[in-house]
């Protein structure tokens, strides 16, 4: 299996895990809210329900974000070979390798770190449309593009 495919599969696994965790947590929070019994202290009951509702809202937002990441990931064509940096590129620089896809951060595949970033990230914006041999500076460091797949 090619490196780009391995990274893609790892990202899909991470996103699926986030979706599943959000769904399980959301179901538990909804059950908790629905099973909340009204005590003699009405304010305490309302406060408890409101706290649970805030947690439900947060979990719903996490689920939406994770599903959005998954949809974005599905747009990556791992078979496309790139000559310039674009969405779906695997870019090797003198100081790291970047998979231009979704902003998940560092993943480790076969004892090698890869940085999964979006084009909207600061480094993604600097890399966009560059080719092998181009360089750029970020946070006072110079990056040289050595390979693009």
Radius of gyration: 21 Å
Beta-strand share of residues: 15-25%
Structural class of the secondary elements? alpha+beta
Number of structurally distinct domains: 2
Instruction: List the secondary-structure elements in sequence, H or E.
Output: HHEEEEHEE
Chain-wise SSE layout:
Elements (H helix, E strand, L loop, with lengths): L2 H33 L6 H32 L16 E4 L2 E5 L4 E5 L2 E6 L4 H6 L7 E4 L2 E8 L1
Helix pairs in contact: 1-2
Q: In words, what does this structure look like?
A:
- This protein has helices spanning 3-35, 42-73, 122-127; strands at 90-93, 96-100, 105-109, 112-117, 135-138, 141-148.
- With 149 residues, it is an alpha+beta fold.
- It has two domains: 3-73; 90-148, no CATH class.
- It has a six-stranded mixed beta sheet.
- Strand 3 and strand 4 (112-117) form a beta hairpin.
């Amino acid at each position: 299996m090619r490196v780009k495919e391995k990274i893609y599969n790892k990202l899909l696994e991470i996103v699926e895990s986030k979706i599943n965790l959000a769904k399980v947590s959301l179901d538990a929070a909804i059950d908790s809210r629905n099973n909340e019994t009204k005590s003699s202290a009405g304010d305490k009951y309302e406060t408890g329900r409101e706290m649970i509702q805030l947690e439900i809202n947060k979990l719903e937002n996490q689920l939406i974000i994770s599903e959005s990441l998954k949809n974005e990931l599905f747009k990556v064509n791992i078979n496309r070979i790139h000559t310039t940096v674009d969405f779906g590129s695997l870019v090797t620089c003198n100081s790291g390798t970047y998979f231009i896809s979704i902003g998940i951060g560092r993943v480790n595949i076969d004892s090698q770190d890869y940085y999964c970033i979006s084009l909207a990230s600061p480094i993604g914006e600097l890399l966009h449309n560059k080719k092998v041999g181009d360089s750029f500076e970020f946070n006072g460091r110079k990056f040289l593009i050595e390979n693009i797949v």
